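User: Can you help me understand a structure? I only have the sequence.
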Amino acid sequence: MENHIAFFEDYILRKTFGLKRFTQDSPVFPEVWAQYFLAKKNDRVDLILTPHRKYSSATLLVSIRQALKDFNPTANFVTAPPFWHLATSGEMLAVKLTFEELVHVALPMTSWWQNYLWDKSNKKASDQHGWFSDLVKAISWFQLQQGPDFDLIQTQQGLLSEEYKNQPITPALQEIKPQEAPTPLWAVSWNRRARISMYRSNRTIKAEPSRRLFDIDGRGITWAVIDSGIDATHPGFRAFDPVKEQAYQAPFEPNDRQPNKTRIVATYDFTKLRKILTNLEGAILAENVKTKNRFKKIIKTSDLTQTSDNQNNKLSGNEIRTSINDIEKSLKNGRDLDWSVIAPLIRIPHRDINQYEPPKHPHGTHVAGILGANMALTEGKRSGTIVGVCPAIEIYDLRVFEEDGTGDEFSILAALQFVRWLNRQKDQPIIHGVNMSMSLKHEVRNYACGRTPICEECNRLVGQGAIVVAAAGNAGRSLFTLESGFKDEGYRDVSITDPGNAEQVITVGSTHRNKPHSYGVSYFSSRGPTGDGRLKPDLVAPGEKIVSLYPDEMEERLDGTSMAAPHVSGAAALLLAKNRELIGEPGKVKHILCSTATDLNREKYFQGAGLVDVLRALQSI
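Assistant: Let's start by predicting it. Here is the structure, written out as C-alpha cells:
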C-alpha cells in the first residue's frame, strides 16, 4: 500500500512544463490527496485541520460545523450522531470528510482558495486553478473506478494516460472567484496512525547505585505516561503507608477521604474525547426537545459512564449535562476548549476496584513499570523482583491508544495540550516530564522533518518547561524487495519516527539490557540522522528483554525502544529529585544526560551521545 501512496504522491507532484515539482502549494498535504485517491466515492478520510493563526480552533469548529450542516441539510443530529466526527483538541480539529466535503466545504475557508486560485490582476484562473482542477478531476475519476472489477495497477495506468480528462469539473470549482470572506483554515493533514512501538537494566544505567548513594527515589517528581494505559491496581504501583510502613494493601479504599492509594495520580482516557465532542450538539438538541432516552444513549455512546471529579467521585447526570452545555457555549462564543470542564468527563475514577476501568492493552503498564515500579514493598513470593528507575515517582496515566493498541495523532495532540494546560494552573509544574513510547512514521513528502503537528506540540511543551522523552522507533532493520523481486533484510538509516524527530525532545534508541558494550545498538533500533540532517537519537538505553509489570498483577519480558525511553525518563526524574533547581529547565537536563553518557564506540547516528549514565549525570552537578 505504501508503494501505491508513493505513486499518487508522485502524480500529485508531476512535471509542470517539463520540470518535476518536489513540493506543492495547496494547504492540503500530499498524503491527504493520496488517501482520497484510494478512497471510494463518499468514503470519509480522517483529517486534522490546523486553524489560521488569526483564528481560534473554536471559531474554525463552529464555522466548519455549520458549513457541513448546510452541505448535508437532511442530517438529523437528534436521532443520529454527526457522521463527520468533528472534534477539537483545543488547538487543532479532527474531522472525517468525503472528497466532496473537502472541496466544497473545507477548502473555501482557506486563504489559498480565496487568493491563489484566481489571478486578480487579469481576472482569470491562475496556474494553481489549473493544477487543482486537474487533480480534482483525477481523484473523482479514480474513485468512480473502484467497483467490483477494480484493478489498482490498471487504473493507475489509466491515470497516467489521462483517461480522467473527460471527467466533468465539479461545480465548486466553477464558482471560484475573488472574494472577501473569513479564512479560518490554514492546513489539512492526515490524522496519522500511531503505534506503540528490569532488574539488570537498572544496573546498566547505574540507577540502583545512584539511588543508594544520593538517597533519592524520585519522590516529589511527577511524570505523565502517554500510552495505552496503566493498570493502577498492580501492586507495583502501590503508594507507601507511613503508619504501617509498608505498601497499602488495596489500591483503592472507597470510604476513605482520599480513596486512591496508588502512585498513579489520575487516569485520563483521551480516546473518549472525540466521541464526546462528536455527540456534543446532538446531546444538547436531544435534551432541548425532551428526548431523554436519546440523551442517555448519547451518554453511553460517548463512554460517559466513567467520569470523575478531582476527589474521584463519579459525576451525576446533571453534572454531565451542565458540562456538555458549558463546552458548547464556549465553542459558540469562540473560546477554545476548556480543559477544566472536559477533563472530568474523560477521567476514570480511582475509588472502587469493582468499578475501575483497567487498560485492555499491556504496553503502558510495562512502560510505567520500567519508570516507577516498586515490588520491594509488596509482600509475597515476588517481593523485590521488579524495581523501576524511580520507585517513588508519581505518574499520570494518559491513555491515547485503544484496547487493540491502535491510536491516532489527534488523541496524542490532545493529551500533550492537556499537560500544557495542567502545568499552567500552578506556579510550579504539576507534571515535570512526559514519556512517549510510540511511533508515527515521518512522511518526508508531506512535512519538514521535526515540524509535524506532534513534533511541534512536543517542542511547545518543552518550551513551557516540561521534559519530553520519546522512543526513536523500531525501524532500524526492515524487509526490502529488490528489483529482481527477491526479498532481503537490511539496515535503514534516517529511520527515526515521530515524535522522536522533534528537536527539543530526548530521543532514545535501544541497546542490550546488561551487555551494551558487547552488543552495541539493538538491530531494531531506528537510526539517524533526521531527514534534515540533525543528530538523532540523543541517547540509547536498555531495550532488549526488559522485564516489567503487566496487567493483572503479572510481569513480562518485552523488547523495543518503547522499553528504552522510560529508562531515560527515570534518569531525568532522578536528576530533578536531587537538584530541584533543574525543574522547568528541560534543555539543561538534556545537556547533562547527553554530556555524561557512556560512549559505546558506535556510529553517532546509531548511539547518539551514548548509553545514559545516571550516576555520572548526578555526580556532574
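Now, to help you interpret it: The chain has 23 helices and 22 strands. Residues 193 and 408 are 5 Å apart (CA to CA). Let me know which part you'd like to focus on.
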